[in-house]
Amino acid sequence: MTLLYLLVLVHVAVAVQVSTKSGKLKGDFIRNQFGSNYYAFRGIPYAKPMISNISSKDAQPIEMWNGVRDATIGWRSQPNVTNERQELEDCLYLTIYTRKIRRWLPPTMAHTYQTSPVEVYFQGCNINSKDNQTKSGTDNLPNDVVKVLIYHREIPSSSPGDKTKTDITTKDQLLALEWIKDNIVFFGGDPQRVAVFQGHSGLADIDINRLFNRANRT
């Protein structure tokens, strides 16, 4: 008699909440088919939404929102993103993957808890950005690291010496780093131990270390 064993790989996601200085977020607690557990928060805004008539202007810090914001969807799925042009303009969001969170941590007590180092990756806003794919942020995610993907504008320069467009990108990145500095502790991250990587943006002319130092001085 032949015994047939059916192996079912289950991907389980349970909603969780975290309170940040910008407001409350609803994310996912995920257990994948390999038995790895982690939290995922996608589509977190670090700046006010950009629209076509201000897409070339400096981004402004996000204001505190009311209620609980849904962070179970990526920035491409936000209600205000309805076409490809808007995807490239209104994309000032970030995604966080972590093994631990501080669900009910008062901001005044954040410094009293043990935290983990943070890895930040600049992704840019292009058609190949895949923040909706859970697997994209959790491959080889160490137990003691918080991973952050930052999406920012990549506006083509009109000439090789045009620094205006580069400045827009740099300011987007700086604004995101400032949000991380203020809020990453609620996701188990240490704002004093952040490693910044270029990711897929391809903007080799930006001094990443200088950018991060500027964020720490604000």
UniProtKB/TrEMBL annotation:
<feature type="domain" description="Carboxylesterase type B">
    <location>
        <begin position="17"/>
        <end position="202"/>
    </location>
</feature>
<dbReference type="InterPro" id="IPR050309">
    <property type="entry name" value="Type-B_Carboxylest/Lipase"/>
</dbReference>
<dbReference type="InterPro" id="IPR029058">
    <property type="entry name" value="AB_hydrolase_fold"/>
</dbReference>
<keyword id="KW-0732">Signal</keyword>
<feature type="signal peptide">
    <location>
        <begin position="1"/>
        <end position="15"/>
    </location>
</feature>
<dbReference type="Pfam" id="PF00135">
    <property type="entry name" value="COesterase"/>
</dbReference>
<keyword id="KW-0325">Glycoprotein</keyword>
<protein>
    <recommendedName>
        <fullName>Carboxylesterase type B domain-containing protein</fullName>
    </recommendedName>
</protein>
<dbReference type="InterPro" id="IPR002018">
    <property type="entry name" value="CarbesteraseB"/>
</dbReference>
